[in-house]
Amino acid sequence: MSNLLNNGDIQSINIEETLQNSYLDYSMSVIVGRALPDVRDGLKPVHRRILYAMDKLNLSFGAKYKKSARIVGDVIGQYHPHGDTAVYDALVRMAQDFSMRMELVDGQGNFGSVDGDSAAAMRYTEARMTKYAGELLKDLEKNTVNMIDNYDGTTKEPDVMPTRVPNLLINGSSGIAVGMATNIPPHNPTEIMNGLKALLENPNITLTEIMEHIKAPDFPTGGIIFGKKGIMDAYETGRGRIKVRAKTHIEKKGNKDVIVIDELPYQVNKARLIENVANLVKDKMIDGVSEIRDESDRDGMRVVIELKRDTISEIVLNNLFKQTAMQTTFGIIMLSILNQEPRIFGLIDILKHFINHRKTIIIRRTIFDLEKAKARAHILEGLKKAIDIIDKVIRTIRASTNEEEAKENLVTEFDFSEIQAASIVAMRLGRLTGLEIEKIENELAELMKQIEFLESILQSEKVLHGIIGDEFDEILQTYTTKRRTDIEDDYDDIDIEDLIPNEPMVVTITHRGYIKRVPLASYEKQKRGGKGKTAVTTYEDDFIENFFTCNTHDTLLFVTDRGQLHWLKVYRIPEGSRTAKGKAVVNLLNLMADEQIQSIIPTTDFSEEKSLVFFTKNGIVKRTNLSEFSNIRSNGVRAIVLDEDDALITAKIADKSIKYLFIVTKLAQCIKFEIEKTREQGRSTRGVRGIKFKHKGDEVVDANIIASDDQEILIVAEKGIGKRTDAGEYRLTNRGGSGVIAMKMTAKTGKHIVGCLMVDEGMDMMALTKAGKMIRVDMQTISKSSRNTSGVYIVKGDEVVSISRCPKEEKSEDDEEEDTSPSLDLE
Question: What CDD domains does the record tag this protein with (predicted)?
Answer without folding.
Answer: TOP4c
